[in-house]
Amino acid sequence: MNKNIFSAIQPSAGSPTIGNYFGAIKNWVSLQDKYSCIFAIADLHAISVRQDPKVLHGNILSVFATLLACGIDPKKSLFFLQSQVHEHSELAWILGCFTQFGELSRMTQFKSKSEKISSSSVNVGLFTYPSLMAADILLYNTNLVPVGADQKQHLEITRTIAMRFNGLYGDTFVVPEPLIPETGAKIMSLQDPSKKMSKSDENESSRISIFDDESTIIRKFSRAVTDSDNKVLKSPDKKGVNNLMTIYSCATGKNDEEIQKEFSNRGYKDFKEAVANVVYEQLKPIQKNFSKYMENENYIKSCYEEGASRASDIAKKTLRSVKEKVGFLV
Length: 330
Ligand code: TYM
Prior knowledge:
By secondary structure, the protein is mainly α. It is built from 13 helices and 5 strands.
C-alpha cells in the first residue's frame, strides 16, 4: 500500500530559511513522486505567539506561494491551510484530553519559546501546541512525517498520544514515524553554529532566507563563523565548518569525503564562496517562480480552497470515528 505522508510549516514572521528548505521542504518535493502526500500551512499554530493580523495574512499567502515555488504541486499533493479544515481544532481538543500536563511541560520547544517571551504572553495555545500537531498528523492516517530534527520530540508525543488512544479504544490511529533526513536535519546559525538556524533569530546574518539575493548570500557566507584552522574538514570541534559542509552537501549531493577532497588545497575564503554559489543556484529558480505565483492570487486561492475541501473529506471520517469511540452521538 502507498504510504501516507503529512507535514506542515508555520507562516511565522520572516521568510523560510535554507534550514526549512534543506531540512524539510526540499524533501517534501521529492516525496511527492513516491507517496501520497499532504502538506499544510500551520496558521493555527502561528497564533500561539502574538501576530499582527495584517502581517499574518500576508505571511500565510506568501508561505503558500513559497511552497508552490519550491515545487509542491497541488496536482500531486493535497495542500491546504490548517485553519480552513476545522477538524484539526476539534480533534486537538479531544487529544488534549489524552495528553498529560507533565508530558507537555517537558517539551523543549515550549520551554525555550516561553523563556524568550514575558510570562504574561505564555498562553495555553503555546503549551498545548503538540496536541494540535498530533491532530494534524493523526487525522490523515499518516505513516511518515518528514521534518527536521527539532520536531522529533513533537513526533514522539504524537506517537504516545496515538498509542494511548488506541490502547483505550481499540485501533483508531495509524502510529506515525518521523522521517528525518540524514543530511540537513539541523542547519545551524551562521553566526553561532551551536544554535539552530531560525527565521525568528534577531540577527539577520545568522540565516539565509530563501529570498536573499546573490550579494546578500555571498556576504552572509563570507562572514559565517568558522575557526582559524583554514582547513575544510568534518570534525566535532569545527562546528562552523561542519555546518557549511552540510549546507554544501545539501545543495550539491556531494558527501563529506568528496567535499574534503575538492577543497583540500583551498582555504575557507574559496569554500565560503563555493557554498554561496551553490546555494544561490538552488534558490534562484524558486525566487523567480515565487514572483510569478504572487502575481496570481486567484490561482493561490483556488489551490488552497480545493486543498481544504479534499483534506476535509479525509479528516471528517477520522474525526467521526474518534467521536464514536469516545461515546459522542454522531
Ligand atoms: P516550522 O515552521 O518551525 O519548520 C518547518 C520545517 O522546517 C524544519 N526546520 C529545520 N530543518 C533543518 N534545520 C533547521 N535549522 C530548521 N528549521 C526548521 C522543521 O523541522 C520543520 O520540519 N510545528 C511545526 C509545524 C507543524 C507540523 C505539523 C510539522 C505543525 N503541524 C504536523 C509536522 C507535522 C513547525 O513549527 O515547523
